[in-house]
Amino acid sequence: MEKVSHLRVESASGLETVCRRLHEAVNLLGGMDSFVKRGSRVLLKPNCGSLSPPEAGRNTDPGIIEAMVILLKEAGVHDITIGEASIIGTDTMEVFRLMGLDGVARRHRVNLVDLNRGPVHKKAVPDPLVLSYVKVFSIADEVDAIINLAKLKTISSVTVSLGLKNFKGLIPDYEKRRFHHTDLSRSIVDLNKVVRGQLTIIDGIIASEFYEPRETGMIFAGANALATDSVAAGAIGIDPAGVDYLSMASEAGLGPVDAAHIAVCGDPLPEPLTDFRKAPEQSGAFSDLFPEVEIIDGKSCSGCASALYVSLKAAKKSGLLRRIPHLSLVVGPDVEKIPEGVSVLCLGNCTRNHQCDDFLVGCPFTSMEFVDYLEKVKSN
After folding, report:
1. For residue 126, is the peptide bond before it cis, meaning its omega torsion is within 30 degrees of 0?
2. What is the pTM of this model?
3. For the chain, is the Cβ count within 10 Å smaller at the N or the C terminus?
4. Count of CB atoms within 10 A of residue 5's CB?
5. pLDDT at 374 over 60
6. Looking at the predicted structure, is the pLDDT value of residue 112 above 70?
7. Is 81:45 a contact under the CB 8 Å cutoff?
């Protein structure tokens, strides 16, 4: 029976309160000494993937990160690294600065590292689902413990982004692309076969619902990442057994998804459960959300599908879509016919061979470049 703790932390709480509640969450699991030894070298792996401020709910709350640093130091751990490799095309150190983590690092004298600048190790995957090996940043093998500081999110590339998926920040960009081009769900499982964390914390103080902030005031903690993910998913109305990579991970022996095999302690889960909207997984599935454009999907990978959704959402929010009529967007390599008589924008490197009016490079392309393109079209 795996144990997962759940505690309430309001978004207006100060660092002292966050520290106390996180301490309680870990104590319910046996205390920090159960996960790290005095004098250990520890890697904190937050979710700091996007250039978003804390209130946007896209990245791990800096209060959670700082509180964990404080708790580790109180436990006699002083060699601490906060490490991340942000999403493709994003400067990790810029994300850290926007989140205020440069200040956290200075105050507590811990390392703040863009993992993209470090070496990688090739690790063979036992009984692989899809990948025979995964290249992982070497620091994952060099530390004594990894503490996974994940974020509670519903996203478009997979149903939920929690602890298991957060370890994608431990691989370089070219491996992230390989994951999306192969099979993202199976690749996430294979990654978690070769990298294990000692403790998983999921921050839902301000969660991300369909890329929008939503306060839940929930944090989860567990020794088993899959069990912790399963409880967190269930708390927002998503059946973990219905999430491909979670069910596959359970079948691979990485932990339970069935609530009958997980003991939840701490504060009661909300009743009724918080019901989060699920993002559609592929671009064709969200065409009706953006009727201002025509989406032509030629078997796009999960990376470009996710980038397209985020891009269209940003453009619609800024009012750009309604100002640019008759725009067709092409994603994916297998498009049979490009429409005539309309403006066509091809998105991503795999569309290079299509006959398009304009083209955005990238694997995947970035939402910033997409919005910039629309701004230029509008001004012409």
Report:
1. no
2. 0.85
3. C
4. 23
5. yes
6. yes
7. no
The two three-digit tokens of residue 340, written as one number: 């005539």
pLDDT, tens digit, 9 for 90 and up, residues 205-246: 999 987 889 999 999 999 999 999 999 999 999 999 999 999
Torsion from C-alpha of 330, 334, 337, 338, nearest 10 degrees: 20
| pLDDT at residue 341, as a whole number | 64
Give the list of residues 6+ apart from residue 244 with CB closer than 8 angstroms, or none: 158, 159, 185
Pairwise CA distance, residues 28 & 378, whole Å? 56
Tokens of residue 206, six digits = 């301000």
Q: With contact defined as beta carbons under 8 Å apart, do 318 and 351 qualify?
A: no
Does 108 score more than 70 pLDDT?
yes
Q: Give per-residue pLDDT as tens, 4-18.
A: 999 999 887 899 999
Q: CA 12 → CA 26, 107, 286, distances in Å?
A: 21, 22, 34
Residue where the block lists tokens 């431990």 = 170
Q: Cβ neighbours of residue 114 under 8 Å, at least 6 residues apart?
A: 83, 84, 85, 86, 91, 92, 93, 96
Q: Say yes or no to pLDDT of 370 above 90.
A: no
Judge whether residue 33 has pLDDT over 90: yes
Q: What is the dihedral of CA 366, 372, 373, 378, to 10 degrees?
A: 150
Sole residue written with tokens 């640019």: 324
* 3-state helix/strand/coil string of the chain: CEEEEEEECCCCCCHHHHHHHHHHHHHCCCCHHHCCCCCCEEEEEECCCCCCCHHHCCCCCHHHHHHHHHHHHHCCCCEEEEEECCCCCCCHHHHHHHHCHHHHHHHHCCEEEEHHHCCEEEEECCCCCCCCEEEEECHHHHCCEEEEEEEEEECCCCCEECHHHHHHHHCCHHHHHHHHHHCHHHHHHHHHHHCCCCEEEEEEEEEEECCEEEEEEEEEEECCHHHHHHHHHHHCCCCHHHCHHHHHHHHCCCCCCCHHHEEEEECCCCCCCCCCCCCCCCHHHHHHHCCCEEEEECCCCHHHHHHHHHHHHHHHHCCCHHHCCCEEEEECCCCCCCCCCCEEEEECHHHCCCCCCEEECCCCCCHHHHHHHHHHHHHC
Q: 132-136, 210-214, 220-224, 341-345: which has the minimum mean pLDDT? A: 341-345
Give the integer Cα–Cα distance in Å for 256 and 236. 18
